[in-house]
Each structure stands twice: as structure tokens, then as C-alpha cells.
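Section 3.1: Structural characterization of target chains.
Under the original work plan, the team committed to producing a structural model for every single-chain target entering the pipeline before any wet-lab resources were allocated. The record below documents one such target. The sequence was received from the expression subgroup and is listed exactly as submitted; it comprises 356 residues.
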Amino acid sequence: MLSASHNPVEWNALKFIGKKGFFFQQKEIDAFREALTKELPKATYAPKSKFSSGEEFEVLHIESILKQVNASAIRKKKYTVLVDAVNGGGSFIVPRLLKQLGCKVIEIHCQPNGKFPRPPEPTLASLKKTSKLMRDSDADIGFALDPDADRLVVLTPTSGALSEEYTLPIAIHSPLLQPIRKKFAVINLSTSFLLQTVLDRYGKDLLRSKVGEANVVKMMQEKKAFFGGEGNGGVIDPKISSFGRDALAGIAHILNCLTQKKQTIDQLVQTLPEIYMQKTSFPIQGQNLAHLYEAFQLQFSSGDFDTRDGLRIDLQNKWIHLRPSNTEPIVRVIAEAKSKADLKSLLQKASEIVLG
């Protein structure tokens, strides 16, 4: 796949997908890197090669989504839905899905012309104009995507864009409303504990993997999870998307949830706790990372430590996760608490430890 994902176009690169439809995991990445160190075979040109539009796969994908929701019930609601596809990969297929679900679609930035009209990552900051358009429209709900349509943000008539951390907890209501034997959902170590709140209501369990879609997918496969994803707005339904983050799956499940629960999106959001979460970074040039982790463990000695991916510390009603960047001399810090005051205190202590 040629994609910069949620990044500006100058970051375009290759994402590798195996023959079974899964993104490369670490084993495949290592094998590929090793192959690059060896003499590569001479490229050959096949005159009979041809391009495929891929339209037949869009049809199959939408059909697989419709099988996992009550499409006829959704059609009866005749939702009006605003879509901001940032002129990316979801520009045609998302409106197509919505129209097959009986929705009236308000299309914003749905012309895949190679130009992004806003910052491509669908954050609250980049969606200010889209939020205003949502509040000024007659739409029942809105959705904003990143260019390759694997990140999804929900917009409501009252609030405009929500934090991307709400997407997965809202979407997971849909499969939970049906009898389901499997007990696990999987998220990464940097995702809000909001999903745990939802799972507790249905008697299901939450597992956490290392950060990264491939790591979430690996654990979902190992634990036979019924659902998963990441706090960046990534929704993974293994019955739909072959263990890949998919905004279309998220959209269908969210509409199905609203239909089955007979609620508006604003009413549903009111049933969920408010999120107090912040992501930041600190320079660590010249610092010993092991010593930094030791300092955090000493400061938060009452916490539970997870060292699978940097250092995550779970405390009562709050947590903090430190991960070193792979490309910059910085450490990324993600923290969450049940109150604004607790979050501020947690980040203040983190800053004091890192900066001395």
C-alpha cells in the first residue's frame, strides 16, 4: 500500500501486506529487512500486466459490513450524515456505504484530488471548521477520516468533533448488544480506559498490547478477541476487516448502535464518562533511558508497572505511559486520570522527573 496514513503527503511510503491480508508484523518486517541486505533479483517486465480499479473489492467489503449490522433497521431511520474524508481514500466508498444504509450524505472534502484541505490527522484542532459545519447543518451525526480511512472521529450536533478516544467505546456497543460468547477486546497500552467502562457493563474483559496496529492484531488473534482497536480512532472488527483498522466498520457499527439503543449520538455520549487525557513529549538528549524509568518507578512506587513497550504505570484511577521515539531524541508521555486536577498533578510530576 502506498500511503502516508494520517501524515502529510510528503511522508508517503510503502506499507506491506501479506498474502492473507494482514499488515506485516515484526517477524515479516525483520525478514524483509534482511532480504534487502542480499543481492536482489533483476526486475522483469511483464507486458501483459494490467491495473485493476479494485471496485469489485469495494462491493465485497461493503457487503461484508452490511452482514454485521441490522441494515434494514438503520435504513428506516433515514439518518443525515456529514462526512469529511479529507479528499482521501474514503472519499467515494464511505458515502457509498452510507447511501446503501439509507442515509442522506453531506459530503465535505470528498474529492480525492491529492490535496488535503486540512491537516490530515483528524484531531480536534484540525477539525475546527468541520465541527462548525456539523453544528450548522441538519446532520444527525458526522464522521471525519484520515487519508487512508483507518482513523475515525465522531462529530455530534451539540459538540462537533469528539476526541478520537471516544470512537472505539461508542462502536463496540454494536456487537455487545448481541449475544456473544467471546470475552476479550484488545486495545494498546496508550489507549483510554474508557473502553473498560463499557466492557464492565456487559461483563467482558479488556486486554492491552504493545502500541501499533500489528501488535493489537496479534493479540486479537492469540486471544480470539471479538473486537479491538486503538485510541486514535481505529476500529477493528475481525468479522469485517480481516483484522485491520477500518473507518467503514466503525461507521456502520456506530449507526447500528444508535438504531438499536434508540438514542441520538449526543444522548449516547452523555452515558460515557468525560475523558481527561493528554499526550505530550519531552527531550531526553543525553539521558539514560533506564535511569529515567527507574526514577519514575521510584516516584510512583505504589503503581503497577508494565515494561513491554517503554514503561506504563497504573495507579488508582489514573495511568501514565512513557515511550521513547524511534526517530527523535524525545520520550512520548501519555497520561489519563478521572479528573482534570489529577491529570495536571500527574503530568507535573512527570515533567519534574524528566526535566529535573
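The chain has a mean pLDDT of 93.
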